[in-house]
Amino acid sequence: MNSAPEPVPLPSLAEIRRVLARLFITAANAIEHVLAWSAFRRLHQARARLSHYRRRGDPLPQDL
Questions:
Q1: Nearest C-alpha neighbor of 39 from the set 49, 51, 31, 28
Q2: CA-CA distance, 57 to 62, in Å (whole number)?
C-alpha cells in the first residue's frame, strides 16, 4: 500500500519558453509602469506647486 510517488515529468521546451517569456514581459512591463508613474508624479508635483503659488497670489519663483 505504500507506493512510491509518480515521477514528475521534466518541463517541455515550449513550457520553458512560455515561463521565460512571461517573466521577461512582466519585468519589462513593471519597469515601464514604474517609469511612467515617476514621470506622472513629477509632472503632478510641478503643476501642484505652480497652482499653490497662483492661488495665494504670490510671485512665481524664478526656478519654475
A1: 31
A2: 15
Domain limits at 18?
Answer: 14-57
In a domain, 9, yes or no: no
Contact 52, 37 (CB under 8 A): no
Residue 62 resides in a domain? no
The model's pTM is 0.57
Domain count, the chain: 1
User: Which positions ≥6 away from 53 have C-beta within 8 Å?
Assistant: 59, 60, 61, 64
pLDDT tens across 18-59, in order? 999 999 898 888 989 999 999 999 999 989 998 998 899 888
Is-contact 50 60, C-beta < 8 A? yes
